[in-house]
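Posted in: Protein Modeling Q&A

I'm a second-year student putting together a small comparison for a lab meeting, and my supervisor asked me to include a predicted structure for Protease stability complex PrcB-like protein. I've never done this before, so apologies if this is the wrong subforum. The sequence is pasted below exactly as I got it from our records. If anyone can share the structure token output, I'd also love a short note on what stands out.
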Amino acid sequence: MKKKILPVLLALGIMGTSVPKTAASGDLLKNQINISVEDMVIEFPTVLYKEENYIKLRDLAFVIKDYKEIEIEYKKDEKGKNKIYIKDGKYKPIGDELKGDIDFKGAIIGTENISVGNEDLQMRKVNVKGYNYFRLRDLGKALGLDISWNKESRSVRITKMGEMKDGDIAFRETATEKTEHSPILLVKDAGEGNISITYSVKVNTGGYSLKTKSVKRVGNKIIVTPDLIGPPADAMVTQVISYPTTSIIISKEELPEGYVIEIEGEGDENGMLSDR
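Accepted answer (user: helix_wrangler)
Welcome! Here is the predicted structure, written out as tokens:
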């Protein structure tokens, strides 16, 4: 069986309907992030709200226009409500893309109706002087883009979904001697563009230690193969169920959008291991 965990670090949320509200003074901050598309790194003006970066839809469309063409249209739907339509086509710049002069006076926080292809979505937004800013990950998911952290350039990397190739992932082991009394699978932000994965394997006697044999990316799955090391043949061991545990560090740059971590080994009856 396989142990699985859906990480919350890179979780994406498409928001339901909410009542728009005027942003309070100090709720919004000007910010700037670097975004890499293919071989380019672009400085992006953003709106920082609740420690999350919101980017202008037209800015993103302008930057990716030679990489993924999209056309943006603002019009009323069949019910007479304002709606943003995004479809395949050539983006037409209007001349104010990537401008950093953001004035928060009268800014509105709420949701926006968006049609992407044949799918209708509602996304959380910040509206500043008539321009809609959305969370980059929400836009990435809607447009079929992977959003990840590029450690070398210290920038947010944008790639088309599916461009990440399957294969081995480099990792660093940080602990191998700890033993738990219950199963564990824990994913945390490790800083500097990394995550840590702490996991255990069930054994029926004491004296075992755990290391990691390999980490591979297969589609959206991150598959961790454990290396269980038994005690010496002449060692005195207790006949008790235990869970030798180890931790590894991997780069967020290696993680596809919507990734799932699987540990090869034994889990509970549903193949799931508790995250505690």
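A couple of things worth pointing out for your meeting: Residues 145 and 160 are 4 Å apart (CA to CA). Confidence is low (pLDDT under 50) at residues 5-18, 266-276.
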